[in-house]
Amino acid sequence: MTVALASIHHDPDGRLTAQARRVLPALMRIFDALAVQATEQTPDSALAPLAESGALVRRGPSDGHLQLGRARRAALALGLEHEPHTLLFCDLDRALHWAERHPEELERAARHIGRYDFTVLG
Fold first, then answer.
1. Which helix (H) or strand (E) element contains residue 51?
2. What is the pLDDT of residues 56-68, one digit of tens each?
3. The domain at 3-115 falls in which architecture?
């Protein structure tokens, strides 16, 4: 069973770039594929570690919190391009934190999520 991680990413100042470089190898060991819907304000330098890790990355406009659902749906659609059996959606900053601080828990969640039709965490 393949499991893809679908995420949104807004990092106009590149504050997560160092963490992404450090944690993406662990994240890519847990997931078979990664799809990231980033905002136009997120610089190339912040997206480079994602692209280098093999993630599918697209940019779209940032319409603020009132339109956040659109970005999340775009991330899910992007994740489906990997044709996974299962998708897990998590904002990228949370996924990086989870993989860095609680990798075993994230791995269990990814491994077991396919047992159910729909899962909400949190």
1. helix 44-52
2. 999 998 877 767 8
3. 3-Layer(aba) Sandwich (3.40)
